[in-house]
Amino acid sequence: MRPVTIVRWGVPLAIIAAGFYLVGRSAEGVAEAIIAAGICVIVANVLLRVGFSDARDRDREEEARRFFDEHGHWPDEPPPPPSS
């Protein structure tokens, strides 16, 4: 398992597990707050992943536009026939 996966999913799940462990053992609301914090970490991770994937899409589009400017056709299209 990669370290990124451990940080992305293991840490928030550990926080949530700690919250469930504290249910009934701690002051009122503490366990629920810890569970909510773990869920917030997961949501933040998901939002960051979506944001970074959008940036990759923009980079690919920019690269395709540069290719079009240089070659006169899009990268996924065949080159136009030579003009006589």
Strand content: under 5%
Q: Helix and strand succession?
A: HH
Distance between the termini: 58 Å
Largest sheet: none
Overall pLDDT confidence: 87
The shape is rod-shaped
How many beta-strand runs?
Answer: 0
Q: Structural class of the helices, strands and pairings?
A: mainly alpha
Number of helices: 2
Low-confidence stretches: none
Q: For the CA atoms, what is the radius of gyration?
A: 24 Å
Helical residues, percent:
over 70%
What does this structure look like?
The protein has 84 residues and is mostly helical. It has helices at 3-22, 30-71. Helix 1 runs antiparallel to helix 2 (30-71). The longest helix is centred in the middle third of the chain and has 42 residues, at 30-71. The termini are far apart.
Could you give a quick summary of the protein structure above?
With 84 residues, the protein is an all-alpha fold. The protein is 74% helix and 0% strand. The protein is rod-shaped, with a radius of gyration of 24 Å.
Which key terms come to mind for this protein?
84 residues; mainly alpha; 74% helix
